[in-house]
Design a protein that fits this description.
Length: about 625
């Protein structure tokens, strides 16, 4: 939700901002804008629509350098307050045009603040909540003017840079979630940022500093980064940064080296990030498992901040997540309950937070989030910790908020995911959940060592099975192109195939804008079967014939039921499963796996199906309409 880049250094701030925005556009693409301070002036440019519109505007400028200066910032927007228009595009300026603000998040008390500002004579021109910050800063700077260290109210720390002090005081008045970055015409030596419940990281370069929503925005310049914690303000200068809390107390934040480089955030020869990321799944999976499966067949999670005893004390597991990450959690439930015999509930984070889940010190809450910034999940984490539950985050983004707010973190090592629809990180999340499930069973002694070792051995083979599956998906690509004009698709599954069906339906909805629903195949006869009409494509994820109870036989019956009513059946079944052949209008084969690991391969044809169908409809699979990669509002 909104991408932010701030810069101070020796390079053209316009170039740095544009380059950063190209990397951040996946976070929102309703509008974009840039502000640059240089030659005694503050210049801004902004445009509704994708970044290309802003680039066009700048290219049409008669000046060779339309925005000279080496201090500046850029913003790409996912609209919340106010439609996606030029006027609502960030940056927003104050009445004097001396300062500019960009923002990610929602300022919940903006209506009150706006009324107060208007009563005080400020003229606000947009419908956004952000604009109040520009005017509040203007008022603060007027109230406490003066050069660095000279003027300042009660708090000693407010005797710092005037812009930093003003931002701190303004932040104390704001409610909601925000990352803010500010530049000022009269202070080209600084870019100042603040955050509460929205992401902000610092890039520490040689003679230059960056503030950004995520490291991809500055990775081409530096791989040295610093986290910014909750309720903190950062003053960035060429030679480094100073961080304080909102009261002005200095804080010392963790610095880290980013372990991937700029090429990982490029398309690498693919026309879309999504295609690249689908094909990166064998590596993403192998990297997530790396070092966590020991040669003697045990699970090693030594980066945990929770002890083995903490895991032994657990008597209940809750998994909280949103969207695709929630589907990974649903898969985990089958594994955790089967292996550990602990009760395990999975809930959408947005719902978990607002009921009264019964949690205590013996509850393990697993929060799954690719970005580590999803506000619904973050709020669920905070709620769980307030109830004294222990929280383990499964996350793909180093330096993000959810791991920092949790007791422990297990990183999926999938590398940056730029395509808005999650693919490789879903596989990473499923793998991480399987590791946690096995680890719990191992430390609690529920599974024998040789049982764990057998699973470890099979997990080690999964990246290769994923690679082989990806190599044989041409038939589903062809079918997707053939079905480009279909009105709807149903997805059915049983056991772990059910969350896979949900994930397949979600991918199709978000990429192809097509009506798609996932159901447990057994639930079909309780209502959804009424949807079946001649020619309706029904995609069925079939469990292994060697799997649990007679699930396979039951799903074969379900396939017959929909086929008898005219559905066109697309069956995902493992090699050697002959029983499904007579009932499959289209049969997509995947390699044999252990039942609980099957989602790692059965998901792949569904991802490819959605992606190819969307492409056949002429849609942009990297930036589907109305979506943003990182959802930092509730
Ligand atoms: C769908 C998708 C979303 C995310 C969800 C949670 O393809 O990507 O449903 O899974 O917004 O995001 P994270 O994992 O960043 O918390």
């Amino acid at each position: 939700m909104c991408g932010i880049i701030g810069y101070v250094g020796d390079q053209s701030a316009l170039d740095v901002a544009l380059q950063g925005l190209r990397r951040l556009e996946y976070r929102g693409y309703d509008s974009s804008g840039i502000a640059v301070v240089g030659a005694g002036a503050l210049r801004t440019a902004r445009r509704a629509g994708k970044l290309a519109n802003l680039e066009k505007l700048l290219a049409e400028s008669p000046e060779t350098d339309p925005m000279p200066g080496t201090t500046g910032m850029g913003h790409t927007r996912w609209a919340t307050h106010g439609g996606p228009t030029d006027v609502n595009a960030h940056p927003h300026t104050d009445c004097t045009g001396a300062l500019a603000v960009i923002h990610n998040g929602i300022i919940e008390n903006f209506a009150l603040l706006r009324a107060e500002l208007e009563a005080g004579g400020h003229e606000l021109t947009s419908e956004t909540d952000t604009e109040v910050v520009a005017h509040l800063l203007e008022a603060e700077l007027a109230r406490v003017p003066g050069p660095v260290g000279v003027a300042g109210p009660a708090s000693s720390a407010d005797a710092s840079h005037p812009l930093t002090g003003a931002l701190r005081r303004v932040c104390r008045r704001l409610e909601g979630a925000f990352t803010l970055v500010v530049v000022h015409r009269d202070y080209p030596e600084v870019v100042v940022g603040a955050r509460r419940n929205s992401p902000l990281v610092v890039g520490l370069g040689e003679g230059e500093s960056f503030l950004a929503s995520d490291v991809s925005a500055f990775i081409a310049h530096t791989r040295e980064a610093m986290e910014i914690g909750q309720d903190q303000v950062v003053e960035a200068r060429r030679d480094g940064v100073a961080v304080t809390d909102f009261e002005g107390q200095p804080v010392d934040n963790r610095r880290y080296h980013v372990d991937w480089d700029a090429s990982a955030a490029e398309k690498g020869g693919y026309p879309y990030f999504m295609l690249k990321e689908i094909n990166e799944q064998p590596t993403a999976l192998a990297d997530t498992l790396r070092g966590r499966l020991s040669a003697d067949g045990a699970i090693v999670l030594d980066e945990e901040r929770l002890s083995a005893q903490d895991f032994r004390d657990v008597d209940k597991v809750f998994i909280v997540a949103c969207g695709t990450a929630y589907h990974a959690g649903l898969i985990a439930k089958y594994a955790v309950e089967h292996w550990t015999r602990l009760p395990c509930e999975v809930e959408m984070a947005s719902e978990f937070r607002y009921r009264d889940p019964v949690l205590d010190r013996s509850t393990l809450v697993i929060a799954i989030s690719q970005s580590g910034e999803t506000l619904d999940t973050l709020m669920a984490v905070k709620h769980a910790r307030e109830q004294k539950a222990r929280v383990l985050a499964i996350c793909n983004t180093n330096g993000s908020t959810i791991p920092r707010e949790s007791d422990a973190v297990l990183y999926t090592r999938c590398g940056p995911e730029v395509g808005v629809a999650s693919t490789k990180t879903f596989l990473g999340q499923v793998a991480a959940c399987l590791l946690v499930g096995l680890f719990l069973a191992q430390v609690r002694g529920v599974l024998y060592g040789d049982e764990v070792a057998a699973y470890v051995e099979r997990l080690q083979r999964m990246p290769e099975l994923v690679r082989r599956t990806l190599g044989r998906l041409e038939p589903i690509r062809e079918l997707a192109r053939e079905l480009a004009d279909a009105k709807a698709v149903l997805f059915l599954g049983r056991h772990v195939g059910y969350p896979v069906a949900l994930e397949g339906a979600l991918k199709l909805k978000e990429l192809a804008y097509m009506h798609a629903e996932g159901f447990p195949a057994g639930e079909l006869k309780h209502g959804p079967i009424a949807l079946i009409e001649p020619g309706l494509p029904v995609l069925v994820v079939v469990p292994s014939p060697r799997g649990r109870a007679n699930l396979h036989g039951k799903i074969v019956s379900n396939i017959q039921e929909v086929r008898a009513r005219g559905a066109r059946t697309i069956v995902i079944a493992e090699d050697g499963d002959l029983a499904v052949e007579p009932y499959a209008d289209h049969l997509i084969r995947v390699p044999e796996t252990t039942s609980l690991f099957a989602p790692l391969v059965t998901t792949l044809p569904l991802q490819v199906f959605a992606c190819e169908l969307a492409l056949a409809r002429g849609l942009d699979v990297d930036q589907p309409r109305n979506l943003a990669k990182s959802v930092t509002v509730e």
